[in-house]
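Internal tracking record. Fields below are filled automatically when a chain is submitted to the structure queue. Please do not edit lines marked as system-generated. If the sequence contains nonstandard residues, flag them in the REMARKS field before resubmitting.
Queue: standard
Priority: normal
Entity type: single polypeptide chain
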Amino acid sequence: MADNKIGLSESIAIGVGGMVGGGIFAVLGLAVSLAQGGTPIAFMIAGFITFLTAYSYSKLSTAFPDKGGTVRFINEGFGITTLSGGLNNLLWISYIIMLSLYASAFGSYAPNLLSITGNTSIDGHIYMSFIIIFSTLINYYSIKVVGEIEAIAVLIKLIILLGFIAIGFYGLSDNPHATQLTIENWNSPLQLIAGGMVIFVAYEGFELIANSSPEIRNPKKNIPRAYMISVSFVILLYVAISVVTVGSLDFSSIAQAEDYVLAEAAKPQLGQLGFTIITIAALISTFSAINATLLGGSRVSYEVAEDRELPHFFAMEFHGKPIGLMIITIFTLVLANTLDLETISTSGSIGFLLIFASVNRVAMIKSKEIGISKIVAGMAFTACTIALGVLIVQQLQESYIGVLISLGIILSCFIGEYLYKKSKS
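SYSTEM-GENERATED OUTPUT FOLLOWS
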């Protein structure tokens, strides 16, 4: 009988692939605008919180291996209640926000590729809408194709990003902008934390390991390793990318190219060729991230409906796939074409920080059962909570619309769940 289990290397690839999707291409410029020369520190701060949370996830995934992942953990900790239902609804909405972020990044990079040929007449919103609809069709056609695209994309984007880092570090010694990394060019500690939290969405994909935990071979050994290795690697990767970016371009150039700054940062060493290569990597990465997130998001809505925290309608199928796939597509088209990048990023970060704080709280509640130190789980919960508070305070000053939209989404998830449960009682 064939062994369909996945090993440690495949598990790490799932975590790395989930994190190094479209997020880094979308939010790097935004991070620099907030943290300036301290951008690598902002990524370290976000990475530290991710690492603590990933530890809680590793213990919960080992104790409760389930394809529902985060949904299962929240239900284990809080029961099937309005609280758990609201949080799981928020998780589903957060997937839609992430899709909007990836589509927005695709729409920012795509016109630059065509501008090489002199064609700049197509609006970015057309690219956004096209890639969302095209990815949806692929999901309806074959889940196997989605997996194959993701596997190829992970390899391509890692090779390109590692090459970008190697060449970028080589050129830093001769680049006058490298002095921007010195401490006098860092923003205030509050801005550094806020910068890390706004771009927190670039790390959230590690949770995909939880959804694969039932298929991981030797789970007690490999699940914790998969989380820790993948998160550690991505922290180092993001910090290195931010060092090269801030050290390669002056702040005014970064601000001007905020939505596609990673491609612009390749120009000092590689010229137009580097710009083109990074642009292609961004398009491949965001495309694969949209594919994978559409699949994951539709499964979340199905799982939540199966637990009777969403109407049973969401457990129905349309053309052989969960109806949630079509609903997510429609919502993503609306959000991506309505909200700006910072609002989308802020909403996604607020949503996931609240969800991860809740999962860390579950780890505290289940500490004896899952074999985690309550102090460590408490540190992770506290870190997420403080980070969430700092992000809200800072964004109320900088972009209060994003905070109001985020809070509106959160309230809608809980009020909707309360009314749904009341109607069924």
